[in-house]
Amino acid sequence: MSERFETGMKVRRSVLGDEHVDRAEAAKTPLDEPFQTLITEGAWGTVWASDGISPRERSMLTLALLAALGNFEEIAMHIRATARTGASKQDVLEAFQHVAVYAGVPRANQALKIAKETYAEMERSGQKLTATGG
């Protein structure tokens, strides 16, 4: 694999956790392997690996973009990642308030509902939450 892929896997594991990445890798098939390589190199090995902004800020941007575009299926995964990136519940609320104003209340409302459910699940499982941002 390429150096960018190696970097991407390292960053992906640091943000999403080994358990998540191991499950995704185990589910990979010949059909989606090129796609998985693309996102590992592009999203994780390039965008998330950049030191231009902090992981906390990147979490906030990612969550806001997912919500604004209505891509709700990845919000829970990125809420769980906030325990590793340093984005707090307040940071997430601030991001979703921006979504409400600039992209629409229904999308922000749905994203906030998913965030609340995911935080509750994290608390029940004893997963560490970030108390304050940055």
Automatic annotation (TrEMBL):
NCBIfam families: decarb_PcaC
Gene3D superfamilies named in the record: AhpD-like
Highest taxon listed in the record's lineage: Bacteria
UniProt domain Carboxymuconolactone decarboxylase-like: residue ranges: 35-117
Alphabetized InterPro entries for the sequence: 4CMD/NDH-1_regulator (IPR052512), AhpD-like (IPR029032), CMD-like (IPR003779), Decarb_PcaC (IPR012788)
Record-linked PANTHER family: 4-CARBOXYMUCONOLACTONE DECARBOXYLASE FAMILY PROTEIN (PTHR33570), CARBOXYMUCONOLACTONE DECARBOXYLASE-LIKE DOMAIN-CONTAINING PROTEIN (PTHR33570:SF2)
A single GO molecular function term of this UniProt record: peroxiredoxin activity
Organism: Roseibium aggregatum
SUPFAM superfamilies: AhpD-like
Protein name: 4-carboxymuconolactone decarboxylase
A family per Pfam: CMD
Stretches that traverse the bilayer: none
